Automatic annotation (TrEMBL):
<protein>
    <recommendedName>
        <fullName>Carotenoid-binding protein</fullName>
    </recommendedName>
</protein>
């Protein structure tokens, strides 16, 4: 492997590491948002709000 390939491999590894850290950081927020969205969805489905206003 030449120097350019080694540098690219290191850069790719850094990108993957950053992406993993980023996802671990935002995972709780994503889960919370999904739960809130799910709850809001079922609230509107089970409420008396007319279909055209949902």
């Amino acid at each position: 492997m030449n120097l350019a390939e080694q540098l690219k491999a290191k850069k790719d590894l850094k990108v993957i590491e950053f992406a993993n850290e980023f996802l671990e950081t935002i995972k709780p927020q994503l889960i919370n948002a999904a739960e809130e969205g799910y709850s809001a969805y079922w609230y509107t489905i089970n409420s008396d709000i007319p279909n055209e206003k949902r």
